[in-house]
Design a protein that fits this description.
Length: 135
């Protein structure tokens, strides 16, 4: 049982799980913001349109609800896309900064100009003595 709890603790404390939990919490909070924007700004505009039936219930009320949910989904998806795009760009910039410097060109034999292994004392192609000409 202790081993199972230890494994679960390692799993839960991994960076990916914590990042996902933060993302879910932020997503839920952002969903509330979008819902508030829809309720405050879009719904009054849609309700001001002429009613198709008694008091906007029935088919017209369903259309208003559907349009509000559709706009909420599109706004949420758009903002999350923009946030993820910015995060991915920041991560790619970080990766570029961490990229290792390109390796130095392989040494060449001063006699035959063939590539040789680092630290070699004789050229495998022409058998020339290399240690005399290395910097």
């Amino acid at each position: 049982m202790k081993k199972l709890l230890k494994e679960f603790k390692e799993f839960a404390m991994r960076g990916n799980v914590i990042d996902m939990a933060v993302g879910v919490i932020i997503g839920a909070a952002f969903g509330k913001v979008v819902t508030a924007v829809i309720d405050i700004f879009l719904t009054p505009i849609l309700e001001a349109l002429p009613k198709l039936e008694n008091g906007g219930t029935g088919f017209a009320g369903s259309i208003l609800t559907f349009v509000a949910v559709l706009v909420e989904f599109i706004l949420t998806a758009l903002v999350l896309f923009l946030i993820l795009k910015a995060v991915n760009k920041a991560m790619s910039l970080k990766k570029k900064e961490e990229a290792p410097a390109p390796a130095a060109p392989a040494p060449t034999c001063p006699y035959c100009k063939e590539e040789i292994k680092e630290g070699a004392t004789r050229c495998p192609h022409c058998a020339g003595d290399i240690k005399l000409y290395q910097p």
